[in-house]
Amino acid sequence: MTELLEGLNDAQKTAVTHGNGPLLIVAGAGTGKTAVLTRRYAWLLKERSLDTSRILSLTFTDKAAGEMEDRILQLLPNGSYDFWVHTFHGFCQRVLESHAVKIGLPHKFKLLNETEAWLFVTRHYREFPLDYYTQLGNPRKFLAALLKHFSRAQDEDISPEAYSAFAKEIALDADVETERSRLEELASCYAMYRRLMRDEGYLDFGSLLIETLRLFRERPEILSAYQKQFDSILVDEFQDTNGAQYELIKLLAGQDRNITVVGDDDQAIYKFRGASLSNILQFRDDFPDATTVALRQNYRSAQEILDVSGAFIRKNDPNRLESQLKEIGFDKTLQSARYDVRGDVRAIWYENIEDEAEAVVERMIALKDSDPETQWNDMAILARSNESAMPFVRALERANVPYLFHALRGLYSKPVVLDLLALLGMCVSTQDSPFAFRVLTLPSFEFPPSDLANVIRFSEKKRIGLWDALRRIPQGEDGISDAGKIAAESVLSLFDSLTIASHREPPLSVLHTAIKRSKILESVLAGDEASRIEQIAYINAFVRRVERYESLRHNPTVLGLLEEVRMEIESGDDGALRSDPNDGPDQVKVMTVHASKGLEFKHVFVVSLVDQRFPTREREDAIPLPDGLVREKIYKGGTHLEEERRLMYVAMTRAKQSLTLTGAADVGGIRKKKPSVFFEEASVEVSTAPIGKDRVSQFANIAERPTRETRETELLTYLPLKRRFSFTQLAAFRSCPMQYKFAHVYRIPIIGSHQKSFGQVMHSTLHDILENHAERGKAAQVSLFETSAQTEIPTSGLRVTKDEAMEIYETRWNENDFWYPDRAMYDKYYSEGKDAVSRMWNIWNEKPPSVAALELNFDWKIGEHSIRGSVDRIDDCGDGTVAIFDYKTGQPKSEEDIGKEDREQLQIYQLAMECRGMKVSSLSYVYLQNGESVNVPTLGEKERVPFTDALLERMNEILKSRFTPKPSQFVCKFCDFKNICEFRKT
Q: What is d(CA 511, CA 116) in angstroms, rounded to the nearest whole number?
């Protein structure tokens, strides 16, 4: 306990050691809320002798949930843990995956993101009872607005039935016929949307929440079980919760009400996503006995920055928690613990945006040059929108300053993704000359530029497409060279085969072949280290997009994928990007203020502070939710301006040492702009910069600066190497560190193989059969699988009939992705899989396994590291011990053939499960080709320490590795990256 409280101030200690009952922690910017949350988690475990499954921790992003698990693990002793640390949507998904059938939802539902929901509605829009909105022009134009309207209804925990009832009641008082019809139309469309989604087995993020609420309300015994399971609930970023999320929290809190919420009303900036500021203001009304603790000690910013930002946000009084609780002496004024630094706050107004951008970059360079400890990573440019940031991106490029533009959209505009789209487009139609041009200019095809110019002239002369011109152009002076002919024949041959494949194979398989044969990855890997990381991340993002498309379509095709991407772009969605501003090499970070939440930088530049840009004009939803359905308490005053002020406050409090506010009169357009009102409200003297006479001379010295070094040893220190590993990672590093680097540092996508696809089918089939068997053994449980009226559940042996087992196999086979090179291989694996399922059924029917757990996830902490994994099957041996099994679809091995390296996986499982309190008596690999179980010796007491030490040594090695290749004929033969690795041995 003493160690947990070490280094905490008094307020933090009070929060961490709070006993029973509700607790509101008001955590100002930079006050160490994450440290408090994680230490409270560890304190609750020790104080109440709980295990991790008894504490539910909820946050708002997968990244935040992962980081919280990492930090909690560092506070816990070595052991194996089952965490319930989730986003709200992740928690609801986990609950519904276990109980969906009990409220009439499909057991295996699919989750749609915002873009996929829009595409879904677009396909079905003719089925919606639209009348009022079809009169307003193109009906598709309003589908995005309708979806946002439905999302807002779900945020407010409004069911279609409640909306319909509201529409009928309001219609009684409506004076205007069109208004009455409009509301009833919206209610009917909302009901239709939910019905269509349910019919096709889909849920969106909003419906995850309201379906979980419906489950808990309609099945109180399930709610009661979760209330009993969770001794304590911790909620991070509470100010960002919406109405449905707050209702979920209150339900789960139950009578014990051991709920801790952490938030700051001054940092509530997600109203556009449905977040309800009133939740944090309402918490004390709903929990009047709640203890309130304010964290005021700021460990991030100099006092001068805190004084300016604090005075600025007080312009939002009286609609702030501090103002409303002043009668009880509540104070959240931040006090800096940074006595080592004096803060620099300045505001500068420029004549034009070019001067502003270049002056910002010049100041960044000066800051870096004046302090050897300052890195590019220590600086950030924050803008209200991506568009406002672009002049600063261009200025950084001109000055050769490395930067990361942290945008959440824009995948389809990345050059390497445009190349991939062109490759797929050529598979569908060679008549698309722009696609053909992009393909022919790929460096990997080595098509001579002079020859390409002749092909273009020939196509114009003959009035034919570029691809037809390539086929017909002669050789010679006005045609193409010998080298051009060789390149043309290679390209034409490739796309002849890809075109055939596109009619037979799913898009991911075609993409895999296109990437491989076009040698795009080789071109990417020829760049410097930073470029490799960036470009491979874009390829990965596009691969994930294709995977999502295939998972949501019954008959996925390349043409269908391209059409879907086209529709996305037409809707204004340029493709989602996942980037982490903490990842990557030393770079200036450029991002929106929203994206900066939770980050901190030594030097922050808040730019484009121009009237009507920041703060922005208020924009209402195209189809607003009626006031009568909005549960949020609306406070008097300019709610939009207050939201913009909170956003500005978040931007200001990212700064540690210096905060620079800038704007410019000329940002394009006819009229000059006025300074933002925030300059005046920040109470900082605004200086006017001189007009830039010669921006070229300003950058003369900058242009000569050396570009950022890309030595691998330097950049690897910035790569996202984690202390959490899987067995697959450990095995890859042991086999060849370069293989590990390709897979887990560069994250080059391994798109698929028929062996892996087959393995997935077999594992999921056997899991489903045994899950059904185990569930049917529980008299009080309902079967997870529906059986036909003719099927009788066996009363002895395996509680799954052989016919049912084969039906499960057929289902799993048909829903999986396939990578079989030809029909003969497809038929061979299908037959072998069928035989294996039949064989395993015979074995299990003769001696039914006593299943204790299937696919049991674990997080085993050892030292400073942890290993994540999932155990295929654990059986109860009936004598207080368990047996662990892992399925293998590869070539069977005898007990003598299983060497030390082969044993490692099962022995890791043994130690992880023993940390969970299990006594493991046997370890076995089950080879599905012959059905035989081959034993692996368990680790004895004397063997455990050396085994664990060896694992720790390897994990430490990974963190400091330069990933020196260890090629061998055997390793390289089965390596997924042999075609792009210069060190391979054949």
A: 21
Please write the tens of the pLDDT for every residue from 820-853. Answer: 766 788 888 899 999 999 999 999 999 999 999 9
Instruction: Give the whole-angstrom CA distance, residue 425 versus residue 467.
Output: 12
3-class secondary structure, 121: helix
Q: What is the CATH number of the domain that holds 267?
A: 3.40.50.300
What are the C-alpha distances in Å from 495 to residues 421, 439, 507, 561, 901?
14, 10, 14, 18, 43
Rounded-to-10 torsion of CA 6, 9, 11, 16: -10
613 beta partners: 616
Do 280 and 384 sit in the same domain of this protein?
Answer: no
Does residue 314 sit within a domain? no
Q: Is residue 742 part of a domain?
A: no
Closest CA to 405 of 601, 600, 589: 589
- In this structure, what are the phi and psi dihedrals at residue 869, rounded to the nearest 5 degrees? -170, 180
383: which 2 tokens? 């803008």
Q: Which residues, at least 6 apart from 595, have a Cβ–Cβ distance to it below 8 Å?
A: 406, 408, 581
Tokens of 393: 């991106």
Q: Which residue has the higher pLDDT, 796 or 287?
A: 287
Backbone conformation region of residue 939, classed left if phi is above 0, alpha if psi is from -120 to 50, else beta: beta
For residues 755 and 889, give the distance between their C-alpha atoms in angstroms, rounded to a whole number.
Answer: 8
List, in sequence order, the alpha helices (H) in 526-676: 529-551, 558-570, 639-652
- 916 touches 882 (CB < 8 A): no
- 397 occurs within a structural domain: yes
Nearest to 230 by CA among 213, 215, 251: 251
Domain containing residue 533: CATH number: 1.10.486.10
CATH number (domain holding residue 780): 3.90.320
Structure tokens at 866: 């942890």
Helix (H) or strand (E) holding 801: none
State whether 929 and 789 are in the same domain.
yes
Same structural domain, 366 and 465: no
Q: What's the whole-model pTM score?
A: 0.74
- Domain count of the chain? 5
Query: Do both 361 and 395 map to the same domain?
Result: yes
What pLDDT, in 10s, does the model give residues 481-512?
888 888 888 888 888 888 888 888 889 888 98
Q: Same structural domain for residues 420 and 474? A: yes
CA-based nearest residue to 91, from 199, 226, 201 = 226
Q: Which of 720, 716, 412, 422 is nearest to 541 (CA)?
A: 412
Structural domain range at position 23: 2-100+229-295
Pair 474, 594 in one domain: no
Q: What is the pLDDT of residues 649-689, one digit of tens each?
A: 999 999 999 999 999 998 877 788 899 999 999 988 888 87
193-198-202-206 Cα dihedral, nearest 10 degrees: 60
- Three-state secondary-structure class, residue 633: coil
185-190 mean pLDDT: 91
**129 upstream amide cis, omega within 30 of 0:** no
The answer to the question of residue 898 being in a domain is yes
Q: What is the mean pLDDT of residues 152-180?
A: 78
Domain match, 74 and 135 both: no
Distance CA 253, CA 232 (A): 8
Half-sphere exposure of 638 (CA within 13 A, CB side): 14
Please, which residues bridge with residue 871 across strands? 856
Q: What are phi and psi of 926, to 5 degrees?
A: -105, 115
Q: Would you tell me how many other CB atoms lie within 10 Å of the CB of residue 292?
A: 17
Q: Which residues pair with 58 in a beta bridge?
A: 86, 235
What does the H/E/C string look like for 506-554? CHHHHHHHHHHHHCHHHHHHCCCHHHHHHHHHHHHHHHHHHHHHHHCCC
Q: Clarify whether residues 56 and 181 are in a common domain.
A: no
- The total number of residues shown for the chain amounts to 986
